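Researcher: Structure for this, please.
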Amino acid sequence: MRPSYDHLIIGSGIVGLSIARAIRVHQPGSSILIIEKEPEAAQHSSGRNSGVLHAGFYYTADSLKARFTVSGNRALREYCQAKGIAVNACGKLVVAQDQNELAALHELHARGQRNGSNVALISEEQARRLEPNVRTFKEALFSPDTATVDPLDVCLALKKDLIKAGVEFKFNCCYLKNIPDGVSTTQGELKAGRIINCAGLYADKVARDFGFGKNYTIIPFKGLYLKYTKNTTDISTNIYPVPNLRNPFLGVHFTKTVDGHIKIGPTAIPAFWRENYTSDLDHFRFSEFMTILSQEARLFLMNSFHFRDLAFEEMRKYSKSYFIGLAQKMVGSIDPAGFTEYTRPGIRAQLLNLKTRELVQDFVIEGDKRSIHVLNAVSPAFTCAFPFAEFVCRSFILEPVN
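Model: Predicted structure, token format:
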């Protein structure tokens, strides 16, 4: 007899794991299966992100991101403390380059206040007392609650908790298609009362198989980080530029990792297939390449959301000297020769609205009683994971939509 589950979750990233955790709390007797095409959990975005726990001041007050980032930061800190997972509570400074960026800096402060984030506008002198090497124009935004963790440590701890709570996992189990009462996978047909799609880079494709996500497609963007190996002392806190608030990318910044190392990044380079992590053809699929290339070509020609400008700017970051130069603008001194190695690249599964030709800024969830589809779980999804999972559980599972 084929197994049957109350809930089958596709994808074992932070969102899939957290939704399973929320379901287990509210429905302790339910049967839950998580399927994952990789041999281990969190092998893509969740395990490859910067590990920054964001503080909730980037997002407009009407967004789900604003709703969940502040409480998510607190919840993940508490989880890490309970599990003995290291947290580097080093804070963050957002710095301005010139007079033109001060208005955006003040807008970030206003957003933070509306969202309940602990942020403060401080003077250039105060910023230097916090980080002697920082360079800013007149003011900076200080976020003491921004911290860093090892994202893989968090995800593997969640996996361990879920297994202990009776949640089942099937690794090396790739979703193939939607079938009546379940899904077809590389490990056979699996029956389930509800399918929860947390497939990350492939979430749009899975959603369309169930009749959802018709207005969207995922455009992958490659994120590269450069590690500073000269020392761990030249920078003591996260340092970010004022971002372009019209798009969802935060710009090249300094990250102080949980183990004290310094890195700069990420890029947001348009990728040509969904798992285009390296320059070789690993995970290359011709049909996927052609679909994404055609979408990116159209965005380039129309310059939708200034995609042409973004693409040119991001491609320049393949130049190591240019990449480092962007970071140098935010500090008094840093040795360019100290950046000697790239860390493991990541791919951002960024949702594109096919009607407006704009990048979607907020989380997107679609579904019905049979299936739920998390379509845009991009940064700060890691920080937001626990309250976001609670929202999905309450909105779509405990009180399922029609």
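Researcher: Any notable elements?
Model: The radius of gyration is 21 Å. The mean pLDDT is 96.
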